[in-house]
Amino acid sequence: MSRLTDLIAQAKAKDPTLGADLEAEIRVLQERRPFGLNFERHQPEAVELPGRAVRKGDKVRVLPPRGQTQRGNQRLWRVNRINSVDGERIAHLEHAGPADTVETQTVLVDDVVVVAEFRDPIYPGLRSTGQVERGGADEPFHTVINAENYHALQTLLYTHRGQVDCIYIDPPYATGKDDWIYNDRHVDADDLYRHSKWLAFMERRLLLARELLRDTGVIMVAIGDDQHHRLRMLLDQTFDESNFIANITWQGSGKNDSRFTSGGVDYMLIYANNASVLREANVRWSEPKQGVEILRRCAAEAWAQAEGDPSKATAEFRRLVRPHRSELEPAVYRYDQIDARGRVFQADNLTSPNPRANLRYTLTHPITGGTIPFPEKGWRYSRDTMDALIADDRILFGPDETTRPRYKRLLDEMESRVPYETFTLSRMPASNRLAGILGEKRFPYPKDHTVLMRWLGIVAGDDAMILDYFGGSGTTLEAVVRLNDMDGGSRRCVLVTNNEVGAKEERSLRRAGFRKGDPEWEAKGVYEYVTKPRVSTVVSGVRPDGSTYDDTVAANVEFFDLTYESPWRVARNRDFVVIAPLLWLRAGSRGRRIDTVPEQGWDVADTYGVLVNLDAAKDFTRAVSDTDGVGLVFVVTDDDRRFQMVAKSLPETVEVVRLYESYLRNFEINTGRR
User: Fold this and answer.
1) H or E stretch including 338?
2) Distance of CA 101 to the CA centre of its chain
3) Mean of per-residue pLDDT scores for the chain
4) CA-CA distance, 94 to 426, in Å (whole number)?
5) pLDDT score at 245
6) Which pTM was predicted?
7) Using CA of residue 72, residue 75, residue 76, residue 80, what is the dihedral sign?
C-alpha cells in the first residue's frame, strides 16, 4: 500500500480533486467484504434542477436541441459569466480538460440546466403548492413532497430524525424494462451495471432512512423476484441480519400459460431498526381474524330479533352468517352459537392435553345434581379456575351428568391472531380503483391500499409517524388516512415522490419539442399527473376534471415542492419563507404555521414559537409560558451566550433549538456523505 500512497500523493500534488477521487475509490476497495454483498458503489446521482435560475458559477449541462429524442452530452460545464445580446441571455461556459486545457462555448441560457453534483452543498427549502383542509382544526397535516428523494431524506433528518415509526417503500424493481432512472437516465436490460447501480441507489437512501427511524421503528420494502435476493442481503448489511423480521409473500396474479410456475409474486421484506428493543418492550403483532366484524353484525341483528331467547338467536345467527361463509376464515366460522347473555361462542374441548393430579376432580351437574367424572387426563383448568368459569357461565353443561361439559370460547377473546407471512389477493382491483379515482388510467400496477392498511395497522400504532419516500401513486397516504378514519387513529404520513415521466412518455415529449421543466413536460410527471391528484381527489371529493368522487375521507393534507436555494440568498438572509415549513414540520405539522419573520421579532403559534429579536426575549418567554401546547421554540442567533440565556428562561418542558442567522445554513445538505 505504500506505493499506492505515494502515487496518490503525486496525483494530489498535480490535481487535488483527482487525487481525492482516487483515494476515495481505493478506500472503497479496501473496505470490500470478503463475504457478503459486494457491488460497485457508483458515483452518486447528479440531479438536474430545471426550475433553478442559472447564475454565474453554476454547474450546468447543455441541453440537446428541442425535438431531439437523445439526451445529449452529459458533460458538466461551469458558467463563467452571463450577458445579454439582442435581448437574449447568453451563458459563457468553461470546461476543464486534460493537461490544464480549458474548453469554452457560449449558449443561450434557456439551453442549459443547472446540475447539483454529489459534493455540491445544497440549501433546501419547501414551497407550498396547495392544501386540502377537511380534517379537524386540531388534527395534524399529512405532507406530500415533490422532490428527489435522496435530498428529501437528508432534509427530513432535520425535521424527523429518530421520529419515524414505520417506513414503507415500493422502490423500482429494476427488472430491466426502463422502470427506473439513475443519473437522469432510464436504466434498461442492456446496462451491464444495472444491478450494482440499483444497489448503490438503494443503499444511499436506506442509510439515511435508518437515521429517521425510532429505536422501535420498522421498515417494510416491497420488491419482486428480480432483486429480492440482492435486496435482502443489502438490508442484512444496512440494518443487520439480527433485525430481520419477516419476508411477506403476496400472490397477486399468475399466468396459467407459464412454463414452470405462474409467477405474479411480490414480497415485503420487514426489518426492525432494533429488534431487541421491540422484544424488551414486549411488542407483539396481531390482527383481527377475517370476518369477525361480520359475525358481530349478524349476532347483534339476531339477538335483537330473538328477544333474549338464545336458541332462537343462535338459529337466526347461523342463517344470517351462512351467505358470508366465503368471507370468513375457518377459525371464525366455528363461532356459531349465542348464549343467554348474547355472547357469540363456540363449544370447545375441556380435556387437558397432559395428565396432572390437580386437574383430576369431579364436577356437579347444575340441574340434576349428579356427579360428572373427570376425563382420563383430567380437566383443562384447575379447580379454582373451573369454579370461576362456572360462575361466569363459561361452561356449557349437557342435559345431565352423562354428557361431558364443553368450554364456551368467546369470540371477544379470540378475535385476533398473529399475522401470516403469505396471502393471496388479486392486484387487478387496485388498478381499476385508481382509474376510478382519477377518471382514467394514468399509472400501472399501483399497490392495493387495503393491503397497506392491513400491514400498517399491524406494525404501527394508532399515532404513528409513517414515511414513504418512493411515493408513486400515493397509495400509502390514502391507506393512512383511511386507517385513521376506520379506527379513530391520529397517524401522520410524509410522502415523497419525484415528478419523473416514464421512458415511453419521455420519448414522446422530446419528439414534440418539450424539455424537463416545460409546463407540458411537468404536467405528465408522476407527482403532478398521479400522486397529487389522487390524494387531493380522495380527500376533497373532486377529480382533476372537476367531477365528483364520492368515496372520500376527511383529512388535512399539504403539498410541497422541495426547492434548491442559491448561496446568494443564504448570504443575504432572504430565505425564512422557504424554511418556515421545515420548522412547522419539526413541530408536528399541526396548527398555524409561522410563515414570515414578524415585525415584533417573535411569534408563538399553536405548537411552537420563533424568536428572531433577542431583545424581545422577555415578551417571547411570557407568551410561550402562556400558550398551552407549545413544546418547541426556535431561537435565531449566532451568539452562543445569548442563546443559553434565552434557553434557561424558557419552561423546562419546551425543547429549544438554535437557528443561525443565515437561515439556510442550518439546513445545508452535506452531499459529500456516503
Assistant:
1) strand 337-338
2) 48
3) 90
4) 55
5) 98
6) 0.86
7) negative
End-to-end CA, the chain: 23
Closest CA to 408 of 510, 479, 338, 326: 338
Q: How far apart are CA 384 and CA 375, in angstroms?
A: 17
Neighbours of 109 (CB within 10 A): 17
How far is residue 201's CA from residue 205's CA, in Å, rounded to a whole number? 7
Tens digits of residue pLDDT in 413-448: 888 889 999 999 998 999 999 999 999 999 988 999
- The CA-CA-CA angle for residues 408, 411, 416, to 5°, reads 130
Provide the pLDDT for residue 177: 65
- Confirm if 446 and 436 have CB atoms less than 8 A apart: no
Concatenating the DSSP letter of every residue in 594-662 gives --S--TTSEEE-SSEEEE--GGGHHHHHHHHHHSTT--EEEEE-S-HHHHHHHHHHS-TTSEEEEE-SS
Q: Where are the domains of the chain?
A: 47-116, 123-286+419-562, 292-414, 589-667
C-alpha cell at 581: 415549513
Helix (H) or strand (E) run with residue 267 in it:
strand 265-272
Distances (CA, A) of 636 to 452, 652, 660: 41, 19, 6
Determine the Cα–Cα distance for residues 206 and 150; give it in Å rounded to an integer: 10
CA distances to 16, 59, 61, 63 from 79, in Å: 21, 6, 10, 14
Distance of CA 174 to the CA centre of its chain: 20
The mean pLDDT value for 87-107 works out to 86
Q: Look at the block and give the residue holding cell 429518530.
A: 162
Protein fold of 123-286+419-562: Rossmann fold (3.40.50)
In this structure, the number of other CB atoms found within 10 A of the CB of residue 41 comes to: 18
Name the nearest CA neighbour of 616 among 594, 641, 598: 598
Supply φ then ψ for residue 468, to 5 degrees: -130, 110
241 vs 178, more confident? 241
